[in-house]
Amino acid sequence: MMAKKQTKAKHVINREWCKGCGICVHFCPGNVLELDEWFKCFAARPDDCVGCRLCELRCPDFAIQVVVQSKQDQVA
Amino acid sequence: MAYDDYIRKRFFPHIWCPGCGHGIVLNALTRSLDSLGFDKNEMVMVSGIGCSARISGYVDLHSMHTIHGRALAFATGIKLSRPELKLIVPMGDGDALAIGGNHFIHAARRNIDITAIVINNRIYGMTGGQYSPLSGVGVRATTAPYSNIDPAFDVVEMATAAGATFVARTTTYHVREMSKFFQKAILHKGFSVVEVLSQCPTNFGRRNKAGDAVHMMESYKNGTVVAGSADDVPGSGKIRRGVFVEKTAPEYCDEYARIIRVARKGA
Ligand SMILES: Cc1ncc(C[n+]2csc(CCOP(=O)(O)OP(=O)(O)O)c2C)c(N)n1
Ligand code: SF4
Ligand code: SF4
Ligand code: SF4
Q1: Least packed by Cβ within 10 Å: which of A38, B129, B181, B210?
Q2: Preceding omega of B13 cis (within 30 degrees of 0)
């Protein structure tokens, strides 16, 4: 359980720009993301995020940003 | 600066279809520019016509959106008059190698210091799905409803044979690799070609039962191999990725400056 909590990430999603292609959802190694009923991406399981930022790098629409907080930030 | 300082946010959301690979190429390019840390004023992007060519409208650099197939000719003019600028030319497969095929091989032959990015979706996306010289045998297109009989060019082999001094291939799945190759290509002095296999889910995917953007990217993940790796064996049927050429040769603008010096001495 402790291992999972190592990264604390915040997913900033631009709903105006997201086109619901599902690329981020499909290729996320932590199965963190989902599309909602409007086909917009959201972080359904943010605690499972490993902070790889591949969703951000593969998004064709610049619609998702991952802000990874370091462990120290979490303590503070 | 941050990577998104290199895009013109006022034009977003962009016009590309959901899942179109062109957006992923733009994404990787902005991150490459951010890592390289060049001043925006040092860079010029020139494009022709096509969905891919719309990239030049979305980058916050000096940019020129020119005519179909001729982007490299315009870029050559800019580079020769202002050799200190960095020129980046994104092109679709039709733009680069159908109508623009001659410009492509001759820019390579001259080894002019321009970075050409061939975004290969194997189809004319913008005009509704006609086959291109990169579609290959068996592909279905509006102009090949019973499947295409034209063999495809191999961009890497063609650029190499024509004289390009940096040649690489990657895909929209391999985003970190793409960013790395873009940076190498931009830093390289001479004609650089980066081929990016990229999905057009709308006009290639649907017609060829290749699935949506996700399925097409899965095929890049599973259907390609790093050149020189253990899996890179003859007959694997996989497309090879990597840097295939990286060499030095006289650069065209340098040679032009040299010949001017020679001529002036003679006068
Ligand atoms: C001289 C000229 N011929 C034809 C066209 C029509 N046309 C526009 S885009 C295009 C091809 C687009 O395909 P590609 O270059 O592969 O780019 P994509 O749209 O797939 O990104 C064509 C034939 C044109 N605009 N100008
Ligand atoms: S950063 Fe990685 S693990 Fe986290 S949501 Fe994005 S793709 Fe998934
Ligand atoms: S990859 Fe981007 S556009 Fe596609 S669903 Fe995810 S956030 Fe939305
Ligand atoms: S038609 Fe194809 S290449 Fe053009 S924007 Fe749509 S998916 Fe991209």
Answers
A1: A38
A2: yes
* Partners of residue B118 on adjacent β-strands: B91, B195
Q: Where is B175: in which H helix or E strand? A: helix B175-187
SS (H, E, C) B139-150: CCECCECCCCCC
CA-nearest residue for atom 6, ligand 4, is B17
**ipTM score:** 0.95
Q: Indicate yes or no: CB of A61 within 8 angstroms of CB of B28.
A: no
Domain made up of B3-266: CATH architecture: 3-Layer(aba) Sandwich (3.40)
Per the DSSP assignment, residues forming a β-bridge with B86 are B43
Could you tell me if B90 lies within 8 Å of chain A, comparing CB atoms? Answer: no
Ordered per-residue pLDDT tens for chain B, 267 residues:
888 899 999 999 999 999 999 999 999 999 999 999 999 999 999 999 999 999 999 999 999 999 999 999 999 999 999 999 999 999 999 999 999 999 999 999 999 999 999 999 999 999 999 999 999 999 999 999 999 999 999 999 999 999 999 999 999 999 999 999 999 999 999 999 999 999 999 999 999 999 999 999 999 999 999 999 999 999 999 999 999 999 999 999 999 999 999 999 976
Best CATH choice for the domain A7-74 from the list 3.30.1300.10, 3.40.50.720, 3.30.70.20, 3.40.50.2300: 3.30.70.20
Q: Residue A64 C-alpha to ligand 3 middle, in angstroms?
A: 7
The residues that bridge with B116 in the sheet, in sequence order, are B89, B193
C-alpha A29 – ligand 2 centre gap (Å): 7
In chain B, where the domains are located = 3-266
- Report yes or no: A62 at the B interface, CB cutoff 8 Å: yes
In chain A, where the domains are located: 7-74
The CA distance from B150 to B140, in Å, is 11
| CA distance linking residue A65 with residue A47, whole number of Å | 16
- Separation between Cα atoms, residue B152 and residue B155, nearest integer Å: 9
